[in-house]
Design a protein that fits this description.
- This protein is an alpha+beta fold.
- It has one domain (12-107): Chitinase A, domain 3.
- Helices cover 21% and strands 27% of the residues.
- It has a 4-stranded antiparallel sheet.
- It is globular, with a radius of gyration of 14 Å.
- It starts with 11 loop residues before the first strand and ends in a 14-residue tail after the last helix.
Length: 121
């Protein structure tokens, strides 16, 4: 039996906790690499990481959309893009996405995989 954790790679389901100064952490789940435009800078910073890893991403109001691209709609939190600051990210879980989750994410423009149907998490 292997103790190797699954690394973030194409079409993996990634569950994160995201926080900014003065705001509580917020869960964020998405399918990695789903965009037809390629990986976002945010996704590239996550590549190869495993559950338990942490990182900080610096953004400004000018670069927020560029860093998150198609995931901006999914994040839906103006606090991430309103001013220059750091976003602290903890990788909570990495798992194989099911075919259903991949298709749902593609159809919803990277919607969440919580089965709520809202396409906005």
């Amino acid at each position: 039996m292997s103790d190797t954790q699954l690394q973030i790679d194409m079409m993996t389901k990634v569950r994160l906790d995201i926080s900014t100064a003065g705001h509580p952490k917020a869960p964020f789940t998405f399918i990695y690499g789903i965009s037809t435009d390629g990986l976002t800078p945010f996704e590239r910073s996550l590549f190869g990481k495993t559950a338990g890893d942490r990182l900080t991403v610096e953004i400004s109001s000018d670069t927020g959309y560029e860093i998150f691209a198609h995931l901006t709609r999914v994040l839906g939190e103006s606090r991430y893009f309103s001013a220059s600051h750091e976003i602290d990210i903890t990788i909570v879980a990495v798992s194989q996405a099911t075919d259903r989750e991949i298709i749902a994410a593609m159809a919803g423009g990277s919607c969440c995989s919580c089965d709520c149907g809202c396409s906005l998490h």
